[in-house]
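User: Just a sanity check before I run the rest of the batch. Below are the structure tokens for the first item. I only need the designed sequence back.
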């Protein structure tokens, strides 16, 4: 019992030391339980984004509605310009339900585009995080991009007219 002997030589009482060790272990257990309890809280985050096209050139274009590959939403594909080159547009609409009805259809859309004229794309996002046993957090962000967004032309949809039930 070197520990007990060394404690006695330093003037400490071995029983007091054992009591302190037991208290320390107890505090560590309480801390571990509290930490696990904090980690077990559930959080739910809901994000809503609104994209609008402002001041773009008004156009009427024909193409095929397809679901977007990334981020949800819709794309108008196979839009031919005056030279015959094909383009795609990311569609921006207040009524995604109307676009969803036309997935796979050839449609004529009217609206404003960002790749012609003096267009701006405005993006507003709101996120709300609900914490089970804590304060909810809400964040808002807004950004505006002026001019053509390289590689991602947007079309702010005003109206949809179905041309054919299938796309070429």
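Assistant: Here's the designed sequence for the first item:
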């Amino acid at each position: 019992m070197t520990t007990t002997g060394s404690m006695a030589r330093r003037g400490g009482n071995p029983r007091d030391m054992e009591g302190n060790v037991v208290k320390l272990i107890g505090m560590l257990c309480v801390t571990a339980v509290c930490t696990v309890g904090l980690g077990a809280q559930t959080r739910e985050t809901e994000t809503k984004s609104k994209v609008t096209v402002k001041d773009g050139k008004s156009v009427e274009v024909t193409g095929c509605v397809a679901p977007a590959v990334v981020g949800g939403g819709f794309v108008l594909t196979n839009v031919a310009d005056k030279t015959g080159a094909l383009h795609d547009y990311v569609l921006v609409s207040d009524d995604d339900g109307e676009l969803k009805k036309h997935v796979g259809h050839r449609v004529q859309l009217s609206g404003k585009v960002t790749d012609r004229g003096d267009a701006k794309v405005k993006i507003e996002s709101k996120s709300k995080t609900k914490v089970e046993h804590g304060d909810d957090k809400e964040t808002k962000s807004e950004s505006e991009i002026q001019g053509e967004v390289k590689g991602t032309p947007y079309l702010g949809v005003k109206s949809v007219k179905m041309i054919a039930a299938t796309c070429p």
